[in-house]
Specification:
single chain; 371 residues; alpha+beta; SH3 type barrels; Alpha-Beta Plaits; 5-stranded antiparallel sheet; 3-stranded antiparallel sheet; 14 helices
Length: 371
Amino acid sequence: MEKLPFYKDLLSYDIFSKVYFNNHVLDYIIAILIFILATFILKIAIKITFSTVEKFTKNTKTNLDDKIFEYIKLRSGPVINPFIYLGAIYAAIKSLTLSKGFIQVLDQITLILVVILIARFVTDVLKYYVISKSKIDTNTGTPSGALYLLLPIMKIIIWIIAFLTIISNMGFDISSILAGIGIGGIAIALAAQSFLGDILSFISIVADKPFEIGDYIAINNIEGYVVKIGIKSVRIASIKGEEVVLPNAQITSSQLHNYRKMNKRRVDLTLQVTFDVPNEKLEEINNIIKDIVSNQEGAEFGRSHFAGFSDFGYIFKIVYYIIGNDYSTYMNIQQVVSLELRKALDNIKVNFAYPTQDVRVFNQTNQIKEI
């Protein structure tokens, strides 16, 4: 390092000229000054950077970057300050006359600390992002959801990358380590195909989001509300009352119906009346059906037609819709419509058709006798 012009003049004083570990006292004083100056400069640089980034985030359309930036500012003490002091200490020590071996050790220690600080910073920001995107369980007050369950796995991956970076820069050959991890991974995969299949399916569920906690779904003749999405399985509170546990792999490989975004449910109703109904009453039935459905709050009339004939009577095809996705409301309105329809048909003396058969017997005088 090139010495300052007044360096030799100061060494003329005994207090500055004393040597400890190959460096004068003056050298240590200069190192301390470098540490103080570097700390001041880095803090000013960080402050300017924060100001610039804050202006940028306020001009973006999303609020997520504002929240992350505010979190980083709040965590600037334990997250940013270590970088500042580490850089200042490194600059101060490098100003001293040190042995080649000591410099190598210093570089390695600095690299390890920098990688650890970066990994810690990334995991902190990632944790904040995941929690901000996760739902809060009203019972426990803790974050929940599929993305939050993936957080430990993401943290492990980040620290594995940090570890491999450190040992690679320390001169170790990581190709053999990676090869060992690959062979071990294959062995584990063969031994735990079902478990790994569920984990991969869990990642697929998180990425694609076919359903969320609280959604009403139907899969493989099972209907109910999703109460938990786990790494290996999904738990469903079925309409029968029990909790059903389905492996993730089974869910991603099956046809799934999600009723959460359903705005209305369709009702298909088939009605049969007896053949003795006169034409004027047949024409009246469609209007009766329309009036009954239209008078129900939450119901929307679709169509009603005299569709044809069966072996036992005249067929009417009716379609109407129930607004919303609540199953209880769906069944309640159907019940009211069916009861009102029964009452209305009784009032006009129209009977429902059911399987009947007339048997006619001829006696010896060719008189017809109905049984």
